[in-house]
# Entry
Amino acid sequence: MNNSTLIDRDLRTIWHPCTQMKDHEFMPLIPIRRAEGVWLEDFEGRRYLDAISSWWVNIFGHCNPRINARIKTQLDTLEHVILAGFSHEPAIELSERLIEITPAGLDRCFFADNGSSAVEVALKMSFHYWRNKGQKNKTRFVNLSNSYHGETLGALAAGDVPLYKETYAPLLMEMITVASPDCYHRRPDESCEEHSRKMFAHMREVLAQRHEEICAVIIEPLVQCAGNMRMYDPIYLKLLREACDEFNVHLIADEIAVGFGRTGSLFACEQADISPDFMCLSKALTGGYLPLSVTLTTDDVYQAFYDNYENLTAFLHSHSFTGNPLGCSAALATLDIFAEDDVIANNKKLAHKMQLATAALTDHPHVAEVRQTGMILAIEMVKNKNTREAYPWQERRGLKVYRHALENEVLLLPLGNVVYFIPPYVITPDEIELMAKVAVEGIEIATGKGRVTSDE
Ligand code: PMP
# Structure
């Protein structure tokens, strides 16, 4: 078996996610034969350092022996069972442990099987809660500009990235969108905290004026990942929690991308010392092994649905693979690693190393900003450093970086003009050096010689 045979077979049958398939006329697909730790290996023995944790899911490396072992044991015991009317030990233990480690007050776990579904669960539950409480005017949701919450219609509606959303606009529920606290837009003399605090005025005004029609505010705590890794200060979350309490509106924290140690704390909400009413988790929940998600909520929400059947207040939402035992086992092994190893402290060292390895880029004539929150580091390439004028998206500068990196053993997947690292936590300092060196070279190439065409 070699790469090209598999590529031929693949391109005859598979429609790949988030891809203009015609691009594969000039950009080969890469079939992966095996993987270990941060390394992927193709069928011709070429290696790729997975600097994006395979779409931000893998935290403890590929084929991690501890996670593998737990899944193997589970596989010979119980592969799957319906979670309505039936239960199983992995789901029970996982719920107990998630309730233990997530912010106080999140006391109930509702499982689904991907991030978008977890968001849909939170939106539906919040709406339904107010209905069960007799507040039928509450039908609207508030989001932030540049936010992202998934691709199914409800989750897509909840986000605000035009590239994904615009085409489907006629199909989507209408949100109330408030300007993001994104610190990229702060004035040069302003701190990130000052900017985020200032931007909160917009949110407060909306909540003060329209809270009677609002079910919930949905946010990605600290980092808007799909929105080009834009970051904001924890103060915004603190102010938002206070205002949601004041105006009787739920707070939905979508920690699908930022949960499980990515931002420097186990959950991003911890940095603002807040508890949301709903917390959505997926991706790293299973160490990036299997599709599983969970929406945690409060006893108050749970009790609003708890009634005699004939009152029809139950939450009748289901997915076939809800709480799959193999997924739950992978998640339990992941939690064991957090319990046994000093992951958060080690991540601090790795994050510092990432900062040092990219420090020189701050002065690069086509880099507007190198920003970092824990184990997320992003480099924003711009046409004009002073005015921050962006490169036109049609030039696909990020693609240049992607292609250079692949030729040099690194998988980087820029978002537009933003090159970022979201590596597995098992990356070594030397591997960080390699990742940064290749990114710097790629940025040189992508920003160096004037116009870049997409298909050269
Ligand atoms: N929310 C956030 C913050 C995400 O980053 C993502 C995925 N990138 C999702 C939701 C959707 O998760 P999934 O792709 O598993 O549906």
Q: What stands out?
A: The chain has two domains: 31-63+342-446, 68-340.
